[in-house]
Write the structure tokens for this entry.
Amino acid sequence: MFERFTKAARAVVKGAAERAERDGAAVVTEEHLLLALLDGEGTRAAAVLGMLCPPDRRDSLLAALADARRRAGLSRADAEALADLGIDVGAIVARVEETHGAGALAGDRRDSGWWSGRRSFTKEARTVLEKSLRVALARKDREIGDEHLLLALTTTGGVVAEALADHGVTYAAVDDAVSARSA
């Protein structure tokens, strides 16, 4: 599948792995893929992100991702479902952080014993890569570009897709912007 990735798409995958390494994360996540897309310059996805989520709104997007990390990666939909069961995620986060410190539910993002030199991708990150192929095929594109990775991120559900949608980066908006740039 990677032989079908454009140079820009390969740079995103490589950038995500580098971002995970800098963060000390044991694995590459969807969030790392998004952060690598946000780091991009001069590509289709960078142009679309620049239009839909300009630099002055990026801090808000990053804060939304950090907030979700504090909630152990639960989306708002997950938190609302738990609230329907009488479980207050905010209260749990507050108590855990009171006892164990800020960000305690973010999980062990530090890798204490990395030995292979290569970080694996989480199931969700692999799903994004697979969906990018499906998106490219559905659009009848021959190669998988970074715009296909962005489109795939918007369809996976979960925290990253939720944060993107909250900032106006939905599948429809990205699809329209990519189509307009291609015309």
In short: The beta strands are 27-28, 120-121. The longest strand covers residues 27-28. Residues 108-115 have pLDDT under 50 and may be disordered.
